[in-house]
């Protein structure tokens, strides 16, 4: 198996799961969280983090590894599209560490049912950030698919 083929499989498989995962959170969870009372939201958000938070960063990192393998071993438009995807994924990862992770930690460090101060505001900030992250993730996956389809 060549590095281009390995990279394409890795970035397509992990990238599809990553993009799908963040899209499901954006479409399904955030609409529910927006309508929940803050106390109920704090419990549900914390439980969702326990399941989703370990998985999505790993899938994003695997997507980056596959995209780097592919970009470094291909040329032309496929390489360019893949580099764009790598940059978009990098923006997602860094901004998630700066914006989302501090919010996640405020909920994760609390006991079940305990609501952090300013939870209503944190919910809005996290939701808006996640919508932006979702757009970038879908754009990155579109670039990956476009690169492989060339």
TrEMBL record:
<keyword id="KW-1133">Transmembrane helix</keyword>
<dbReference type="Pfam" id="PF08592">
    <property type="entry name" value="Anthrone_oxy"/>
</dbReference>
<feature type="transmembrane region" description="Helical">
    <location>
        <begin position="55"/>
        <end position="75"/>
    </location>
</feature>
<keyword id="KW-0812">Transmembrane</keyword>
<keyword id="KW-0472">Membrane</keyword>
<feature type="transmembrane region" description="Helical">
    <location>
        <begin position="131"/>
        <end position="149"/>
    </location>
</feature>
<dbReference type="InterPro" id="IPR013901">
    <property type="entry name" value="Anthrone_oxy"/>
</dbReference>
<feature type="transmembrane region" description="Helical">
    <location>
        <begin position="81"/>
        <end position="100"/>
    </location>
</feature>
<protein>
    <recommendedName>
        <fullName>DUF1772 domain-containing protein</fullName>
    </recommendedName>
</protein>
<feature type="transmembrane region" description="Helical">
    <location>
        <begin position="6"/>
        <end position="27"/>
    </location>
</feature>
């Amino acid at each position: 198996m060549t590095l281009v083929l390995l990279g394409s499989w890795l970035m397509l498989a992990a990238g599809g799961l990553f993009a799908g995962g963040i899209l499901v959170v954006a479409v399904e969870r955030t609409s529910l969280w927006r309508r929940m009372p803050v106390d109920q939201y704090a419990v549900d958000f914390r439980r969702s983090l326990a399941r989703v938070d370990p998985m999505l960063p790993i899938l994003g990192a695997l997507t980056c590894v596959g995209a780097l393998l592919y970009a470094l071993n291909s040329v032309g438009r496929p390489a360019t599209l893949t580099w764009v995807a790598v940059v978009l994924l990098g923006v997602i990862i860094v901004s998630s560490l700066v914006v989302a992770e501090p919010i996640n930690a405020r909920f994760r460090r609390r006991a079940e049912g305990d609501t952090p101060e300013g939870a209503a505001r944190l919910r809005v900030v996290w939701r808006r950030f996640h919508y932006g992250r979702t757009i970038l993730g879908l754009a990155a996956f579109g670039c990956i698919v476009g690169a492989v389809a060339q």
